[in-house]
Write a sequence for this structure.
């Protein structure tokens, strides 16, 4: 993955970001299985600190690979959110570099690598444990209308990032 990124042109200021929704698996404060990601915007990058625990275990002492992928997806999906662009995951390719240990503070970051036309956002994300690469993901997100979320159960006011 390229460390280079495109400007997000985000209307949001640098700093902490609110959870997507209270029940979000990645960042939701009311989801008992949440990874508890504390998402922030730092320039052209979304960054979060988190710690896997027994709720996220696969093999003993290690996070499940699917949960690792979910963290990459969550960080990547926050990039269009900070741009106030409703988008959903179309593809996520994950490369695992080393096991993700439980009870270790980790960092995930995501950047907009390129935009293809009006609908395709290519986003790169990576998880690090004390500066060491754990996993990286290359994601393709496609822009949708807010109606996509309402068609699947969102209620008015639940997705304030998009003004609805």
């Amino acid at each position: 993955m390229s460390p280079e990124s495109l400007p997000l042109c985000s209307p949001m200021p640098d700093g902490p970001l609110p959870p997507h929704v209270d029940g979000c698996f990645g960042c939701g404060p009311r989801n008992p299985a949440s990874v508890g990601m504390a998402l922030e915007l730092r320039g052209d990058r979304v960054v979060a600190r988190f710690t896997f625990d027994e709720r996220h275990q696969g093999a003993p002492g290690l996070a499940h690979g699917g949960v690792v992928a979910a963290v990459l997806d969550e960080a990547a999906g926050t990039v269009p959110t900070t741009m106030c662009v409703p988008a959903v995951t179309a593809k996520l390719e994950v490369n695992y570099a080393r096991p993700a240990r439980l009870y270790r503070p980790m960092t995930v970051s995501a950047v907009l690598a390129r935009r293809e036309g009006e609908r395709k956002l290519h986003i790169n994300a990576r998880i690090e444990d004390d500066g060491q690469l754990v996993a990286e993901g290359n994601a393709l997100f496609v822009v949708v209308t807010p109606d996509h979320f309402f068609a699947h159960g969102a209620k008015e006011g639940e997705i304030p990032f998009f003004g609805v």
